[in-house]
């Protein structure tokens, strides 16, 4: 199942497994890094950083206008532009899992409390 190329947004999920005493520091570092991404990489839509209740995981969610925009930003990570690998070492991440996804359906509540569904047109592969 694929959506038309022009309507696809692109999401990167990065999950960190860490020791609980590292969680708050990692969240702070990711917040700063995400702000730099938003300022310096075109195509940035939104991001969130989520922390597990047990303190052992952090999930970084980044959404881009296109796959190309997300991949360009990630290439900046790999080249040291955002010092991503140093961030992983500094917070002693046991594992880091990367996932890339195309957004095909979203639901959100607006300021007037209405629900808005964005269903991207689907085509069978």
What does this entry look like structurally?
With 125 residues, this protein is an alpha+beta fold. It has a single domain (5-119), classed as Alpha-Beta Plaits (2-Layer Sandwich). Helices cover 30% and strands 35% of the residues. The chain is built from three helices and six strands, in the order E-H-E-E-H-H-E-E-E. It has helices at residues 23-40, 67-78, 84-90; strands at 9-17, 44-51, 57-64, 95-103, 105-109, 115-119. Strands 2-3-1-4 form a four-stranded antiparallel sheet. Strands 5-6 form a two-stranded antiparallel ribbon. A hairpin with a 5-residue loop joins strand 5 (105-109) and strand 6 (115-119). The longest helix has 18 residues, at 23-40. The N and C termini lie close together (5 Å).
SSE series: EHEEHHEEE
Give the terminus-to-terminus CA distance: 5 Å
In total, the number of domains comes to 1
User: What assembly state would you assign to the polypeptide chains in this entry?
Assistant: single chain
**Number of separate strands:** 6
CATH topology: Alpha-Beta Plaits
The CATH class label is Alpha Beta
Relative helix content: 25-40%
Question: Taking Cα atoms only, what radius of gyration do you get, to the nearest Å?
Answer: 16 Å
Spatial strand sequence of the major β-sheet: 2-3-1-4
Calculate the mean pLDDT score and round it: 82
Can you tell me the CATH architecture?
Answer: 2-Layer Sandwich
What's the overall geometry?
Answer: globular
- Kindly name the structural category: alpha+beta
**Major sheet details:** 4 strands, antiparallel
**Approximately what portion of the residues adopt beta-strand conformation?**
35-45%
């Amino acid at each position: 199942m694929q959506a038309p190329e022009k309507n696809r947004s692109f999401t990167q999920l990065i999950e960190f497994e860490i020791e609980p005493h590292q969680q708050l520091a990692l969240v702070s570092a990711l917040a700063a890094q995400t702000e730099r991404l938003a300022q310096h990489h075109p195509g940035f839509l939104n991001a969130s950083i989520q922390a597990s209740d047990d303190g052992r995981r952090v999930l970084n969610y980044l959404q881009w206008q296109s796959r190309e925009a997300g991949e360009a930003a990630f290439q900046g990570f790999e080249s040291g532009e955002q010092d991503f690998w140093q961030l992983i070492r500094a917070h002693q991440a046991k594992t880091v899992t990367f996932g890339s996804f195309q957004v095909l359906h979203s639901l959100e509540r607006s300021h007037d409390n209405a629900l808005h569904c964005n269903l991207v047109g689907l085509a069978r592969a």
